[in-house]
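PROTEIN DATA CARD
Card holder: Ppn1-vacuolar endopolyphosphatase
Chain length: 641
Origin: Malassezia pachydermatis
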Amino acid sequence: MQWLAVLGALASAASVLAEQHAFQLDEAPPTTLTRPDQTLTGRFLHITDMHIDMHYKEDSAVVSQCHHNKPYSKHGGKWRAGYWGSSVSDCDAPHRLPNATMQWIAEQWAPASDPTEASSTRRNPFDFILWTGDSARHDQDPEIERTSEEIQQLNRDAVAMFAYHFPGVPLVPNFGNNDIVAHNTMMAGPSKEIEEFARIWEDHIPKDQRPTFLRGGFYAKDLIPNKLGVISLNTLYFYDSNKAVDGCPRRRRKDEDADVDIGTLELEWLTDRLIEFRRRNMQVHIIGHVPPTAGNYYKRCFDVYTELVLRFQDTILAQHFGHMNLDAFFVQESSIVNDRASKGKKGQILYKMIEQDLRYDYESLPGNARTDMDYYSVFYEAPSMVPTYLPSFRVWTYNISMEHSNRPFVVMSDDDASLLREYVSYDLCDDDDLSEECVWEGDDDFAILKKDRRHRRPKRKHRRRHAKLPRYASPSAPSRTNTHLSLLGYSQWVMDLDRANAQYENTLRKYGKEAAANLTIEFDLEYATYEAHVLWHPFLDELEQKNPDLTPPVHHHSPEEHHIPVPKHLLSHVLDTVQLDSPFQCNKQACKFAKPLKAFSNYALEDMTLRSVMDLARRLVLEPKLWKSYVHRLYCNSLKN
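Structure generated from the sequence above:
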């Protein structure tokens, strides 16, 4: 394949300077790796948890992690590994799966050519790609040692795939807990491991961010110059399974940077980056691998991170994570409002703990009229490409139809910025303050083990000192009101692995190995968050032309309001799947959307602003059928039976 040539080029690419760099929080504003003149599509791609396995062996025993022929019949040996992967299993992904996936995405989402554009102008399918880590296989086969060289090569392979299939599209890479040789365990840099990733991701990390990256594996950059930025966190320093860190304890004022936990340093750096982006009148996406739940993060890492993102609500557009292989969204709530929130009704106790936690969170939300939106946010957990359930990816759309005018509702003073830094570093405490709020937790005071991993919002103790902190929230911010850069929605795509493997086996049996090897894969639309008239808009004008006297379903008429979240040919494939010629069912007077299509847009959100998503959370626990659909989607609809 041609992309293999790219692998060789990347493997021999010049390395970054390996010299030691001082870690400085007052670095220059992040630069951009995006062309200023790039034509925006209003779409971006999120891919996570590829878990590429170069040892994956077709027709091996699934119970051997798809590595070995034995066992054959006993002890589960009858279940054999498929050509494209093995769904709902502990096996990782064969090398061919992510490559074929990216090929399908690039071909299916390629924008139509514009005859007025120069032939040398290439239009990209996406404005940027979020890649939230875990590209290497799990370390679960005692017979095949997982080495740092293998892990790094798999990340080089992934970079080469992105470069080949999406040339020129800005890529935002991120560390996963399986991208390091000591599973879950990562110490602060500089280290040979981080330095090697600086080489692997060299084209995607701005040069002015290299010192920070070499220190901790996190960085920030512009995606749309002076409009939209991204912060790529190293969430392993917050993750409570990483025993090489101390859990973000606050500094003592006598401490030098070298004596401070790397998680605390990263939170300080995050604060400065949010301040910087806000002062530049920009919006920002935050990405990471391990999502910020109480069950995943050390307590102070969780508390400070959550409080920070809530207090920069007018600057943060969205937060995107992977790791859990699930499709879900989580509500974040300020500690100030937590104590006065309603306890919620007793809900159905579900077998899966994550379902129970999500339902508890959604039920405990106050009613719409009683909700102070300044104290809430959400983050998104995306399902994985590795077939823990089914291979999946997500395509987001966002508003590019309005002029950039995201000026802060409240101007940040230097005193306010200093107060936020004081909170993150010191909890607003002096070293000799022995009050309950200022008890210092050192290394020996942290509980190393948790009894369980509950991901529901904890009842955090209200701290009076937090009331001093500035809060930057505005109803007119893009996270709260549909305006320039606001998220409009996403479409979720899944691959039917069993069908693809069966097609391969059938072709192999009838036509031989060469014909089978030339097969391509396809993904199906699992669902979309949009309203039906938005999702199926490409067919509405066609309906009006054929039936001018009929009343079509309600939709926008002005061309500038036409939002096409999914290309028409992919929607036509959906119609073929449900055996329909048209998305509409018409009588003599009017048309309505066909009933078999309702499940594809049953969330029916106008946009992905905060109130819309919180309203969806309330609907989920009030409508049993919708909740059932949501639970199935948690696992990519792989566990329906």
